[in-house]
């Protein structure tokens, strides 16, 4: 099965969500309810049970962790440097741009996509869990940067802000509970395991449907924006060049350099080549920094991914 088949399935569910939102078949706030359900319940459940049922040796993919995180950090720092070169002292803008170029949708799109591409392979969820955890850490770094540059009356130290952003994240909580169960060699009762599995199985369709609804809202929000101004178009193109092309290319070389091969190599490239997550837009909106550009970049990147991902997958299989 080529990646086009699961991509059609993934984007098909997203398109259905977009149409339902546009035609108002469901209440306008349905996307918010679905997002909260998936984020706080379904994703933590599926990652918890997937990690709990894996040997701890299978979870601790140190090469994958090192290669993926190093590539992500390098792209982040390069983007910050380039942004500050053209907009000196605009550290908040640089942080949001860099986050747009690194923080992929490894949960809402990545998990469903890998589950379809690698059916019956728990390693797909392990890879998605690792990528999601590393993305949360990068999100925390950007959050601290925004707090330091925009909030002069902050109540907590930067380190405290970063730690709170990580430990309060439900995906992080689900992953660490699953890792702890695996490390301690605990076997969950079959009824409890089945409950988590059934809840987790709802995550993929609900997440993709919600993404489609969010994109419909974003398109409506962007109707009057100057999407096609030359400056804006250049910025969007550069951000998505880093996110969809350069980051997966760097992930490929970094993973290869530390000895990662086979399915984990392919998974790493796919996860790093996903479009920017909507969380970046929400963060940008919260700090009133690059919110419109972030929304436009997510829309642009999601469309481009449909064409770029099959090419990247083929290149990885050819040169791995």
Automatic annotation (TrEMBL):
**The keyword Transmembrane helix is annotated on this UniProt entry:** yes
Tell me which UniProt keywords the record has, alphabetically: Cell membrane, Membrane, Transmembrane, Transmembrane helix, Transport
Name the major location.
membrane
Q: Where are the transmembrane segments?
A: 6-25, 37-56, 62-86, 98-118, 124-146, 158-186, 198-216, 237-258, 264-283, 295-312
Q: Which Gene3D superfamilies match?
A: 1.20.1530.20
Stated membrane topology is:
Multi-pass membrane protein
Stretches of the chain forming a coiled coil according to its record = none
The reply to whether Phosphoprotein figures as a keyword in the UniProt entry is no
* Location(s) in or outside the cell: Cell membrane
Q: Which family does it belong to?
A: Belongs to the auxin efflux carrier (TC 2.A.69) family.
Record's PANTHER family? Answer: AUXIN EFFLUX CARRIER FAMILY PROTEIN (PTHR36838), TRANSPORTER AUXIN EFFLUX CARRIER EC FAMILY (PTHR36838:SF3)
Name listed for the protein in its UniProt record: AEC family transporter
Look up and give the organism this protein is from: Shewanella xiamenensis
């Amino acid at each position: 099965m080529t990646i086009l088949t699961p991509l059609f399935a993934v984007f098909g569910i997203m398109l259905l969500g977009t149409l339902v939102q546009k035609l108002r078949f469901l209440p306008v706030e349905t996307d918010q309810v679905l997002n909260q359900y998936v984020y706080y319940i379904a994703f933590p459940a599926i990652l918890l049970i997937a990690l709990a049922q894996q040997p701890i040796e299978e979870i601790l993919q140190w090469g994958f962790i090192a290669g993926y995180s190093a590539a992500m950090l390098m792209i982040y720092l390069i983007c910050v440097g380039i942004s500050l070169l053209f907009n000196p002292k605009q550290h908040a803008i640089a942080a949001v741009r860099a986050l747009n170029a690194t923080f992929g949708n490894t949960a809402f799109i990545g998990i469903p996509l890998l589950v379809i591409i690698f059916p019956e392979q728990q390693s797909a969820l392990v890879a998605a869990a690792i990528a999601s955890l590393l993305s949360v850490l990068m999100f925390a770094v950007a959050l601290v940067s925004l707090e330091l540059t925009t909030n002069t009356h902050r109540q907590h130290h930067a380190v405290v802000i970063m730690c709170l952003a990580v430990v309060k994240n439900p995906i992080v909580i689900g992953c660490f509970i699953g890792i702890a169960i695996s490390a301690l060699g605990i076997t969950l009762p079959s009824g409890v395991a089945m409950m988590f599995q059934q809840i987790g199985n709802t995550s993929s369709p609900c997440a993709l449907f919600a993404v489609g609804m969010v994109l419909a809202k974003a398109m409506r929000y962007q109707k009057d924006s100057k999407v096609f101004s030359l400056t804006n178009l250049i910025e969007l193109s550069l951000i998505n060049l880093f996110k969809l092309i350069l980051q997966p290319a760097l992930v490929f070389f970094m993973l290869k350099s530390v000895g990662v091969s086979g399915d984990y190599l392919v998974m790493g490239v796919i996860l790093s080549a996903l479009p920017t997550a909507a969380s970046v837009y929400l963060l940008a909106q919260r700090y009133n920094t690059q919110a419109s550009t972030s929304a436009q970049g997510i829309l642009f990147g999601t469309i481009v991914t449909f064409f770029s991902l099959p090419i990247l997958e083929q290149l990885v299989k050819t040169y791995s």
